[in-house]
Every structure is written in structure tokens, then in C-alpha cells.
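User: Run a structure prediction on this.
Assistant: Running it now.
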Amino acid sequence: MKKKNVLFLVIDCLGHRFLAGDQIRKYPFLYHLFNRGTSFSQAVSVSSTTSPSMASMLTGCYPYRHQVNTLAGVRLSPKVPAFADILSRAGYHTYAEVTGPLYPELGISRGFAEYNHRPTTHYLHSEWGTQFAGRLKSGCYREPWFLFLHAWELHAPRQVLPAFDKDKYGVRYTRALHSLDLVLERLFEPFADFRDTIFILTGDHGEQVESSKFDRLLRRAIKKSYDRLSSRGFLEEHWLSVYKRCHLGHGYDLNEELVRVPLLFIDHDGLPEKTELDLQASHVDIAPTVLDLLDLRGEDFRMDGQSLLPVVDHEEAGAEHVAYMQSSGIVLPDPSRWQEGIRYRGMKYIRYQQQAGSGGERLYDLRKDPDERYSISDEKLLNLMRAKLESLKTWEEDPREDLQMSKEEIAEMSLRLKDLGYI
């Protein structure tokens, strides 16, 4: 039997709320895609920063295992499985087309026969995109192939086609999403029926965006004023509440706007169409689910994620596992402000990574308080969520120092990240 190709599309900064409910109808091709497969409306990213999130998708493991917990400085642990390596050993030709901070030095290129890191100015609507589309249509990628495609159009500076640069298409983010929708339709024309291809779509994390031009100016003014005051030692204890309300972008927190993402699987033979499941899923579940679809689940891969097929097939109705998440790195240069948390049965628990006790804890009931305005202080629930979080982090890993980049590598990565606007 012919093996199916696997196309894995990650759209940088694509948050769930922009495609939730009737919002998705604004984007015809994305609406078409979601009608072709099975999606999860409660999918969450493992991180509000790109590199840790991508590393989890490509290993099925959480950041505290694969060790890529920020944009630079630490490389992927050799002890975690690599999704591309597994597929390569199963006879797949593996390709990655990535950009942004996903430099090979991170180690997430493991298992890819070709790992192409392009400049951030090489967008899908640019000449590079035309050439890439040509490679797809001409059969340049040897079958069966696994193609990991990282799209950068929604990341600042957002890319807007002239046809959509109008007020009726909303703020710049939604204009960029309209533009990307059209570009994807043209790009994926050869896969109109997806009969020979398994397709996965998600965002690496969400994005906090303005609601209007005035809102953007107001947020920037408040944040700028706060940064000046806090640099002089005032109001430092209010940094999180100010950033949650006023910061535009991602990486600084674990609120739903930043960690909740769309997640779609299309497999003509293995999954139902027009199906949206209101069940929790995590980025670490993607690799085991695809391996299950390809009937490669028999091998012993030590992953944190689990296949979602039993849930789709109603074999485990109501099943849900704990979803871990973290925020750390360039946007939060002070490690004392790095956060970690879990999402479980409608509750979200967050704490500072360096305060494993009761310091800096927040607990939200997302069913009653979806905007996370009120942290609750139910000691019984807090104890439950603390125990759930600690039970996840039981697999001992090599000391972090063994995975550190050299000083020269860190310096080079810092220069690249500065060019990207992260520093």
C-alpha cells in the first residue's frame, strides 16, 4: 500500500480566537480546510514562545524534557525522540522549510534530510513562495514525504496584500490573515482533496493584538509609561497585570489569548470531516496522533503526548490529560518571571518556575471566568493542580549544562535574534 505524504503547517502567531465560531467564515480557504477534517477547539500550545513550542511539536515532549525552553542558549536533548527521525526510519523523505528563530543550532533539525532555514523576508507570497509552490507541484519532494512548513506572515511585521489593506478587513493582524488565506489557497491547489496526504495545521502560539488604531496607541502609551516607572523601582509588582492588558505580541504570559491555538487534522481515510471536538489537546499530542494514523504506534517512543485517535473514535469518551505550558525567554529576560502551568478539566494553574511552592500562584476556572480576571484561592483545588503539575515532571534528564550552546554560538544567535526584533 502506498504511504501517504504528511504536510505539517505551522502558522506563526495564529491564535484560536481568530478562527473560533463564525470568525472562520471570514477566511474561505481556512474554512474549507476545517470542513475537510477534525479539529480541536480546546487545543493549547506548550509555550507562548516559538522555539519551545516547535520543539515540542517535533518531539512529542514538553520543554522541561527536550530542554529548548527559550529562543537561544540550549539545544535539543539527544534523549528525546525526533518526529522527523522516526518517519525517516519508516521510509519517509523528510523536509523542513522554516524561518524566524528556528536555527539549526537548536537541534530541532534532527531527522530532516533537508532543513532549509530561509530569511524572514521570504514569504509565501514572495518569489520564494512562488518557487516553493513550483517544487510542490513538480514533485521535487520525493514520495513518501514529510514536509514541515513554517509560515511567518502573521508575525510582525505582518504581511498584507494590497487587496486586503482596507478598513473593512479590520486591524493589520486580520488583514494579514485574510492575505494568508488567499495565498494558502493558491499554494495548496495540488492537494485539493488531500486523498494521498495527511495534513496538520496549528499555530505555534497565539497573539495579543489591538482592537483598533486607537487601542494600539493607548496600549503602547500605558506600557511605555509603566516601563519607565518600573525601571526606577516603582510599581514593579504590577508588571504582569500591565503586560496582560497592554502588551501587544506574545511570550510574556500564559493567558488563553497566547496559548490557545487552532489544531486541525485532515486524513481522508482515518478521520471524519466537518468535526470539531470541544476537548483539550496539546502540541505534544500531534506527533503520536500522526504516528497512529500511519500505523507506526507499535514502536516504543517515549513521548509526553498521546494519540488523539481514541478520543475521535469515542473509545475514550471524555478522556483528557493534563496539558503543560510555559512562558520564558527573550520577552521575559528575568528568569524569576518565567512561568509554568497546567490546564486540566476547565481549570488553569500558573506559577513562577523558580517558586515551586505557593509563590506567585494563580488559579482560574476557565468555564466561569474565560477572560482569567479572577484568581481563585481554593486550597483543595490548588493542591490538586500542584500535584498534577509535579507528577508530570518525573523523567530525569541530563544536567542542563551539558546541552548549553558555546559562548560563540550564543553570541551568534543573539545577533540573529536582534535582527529579528526579539532583542
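The two ends are 50 Å apart (CA to CA).
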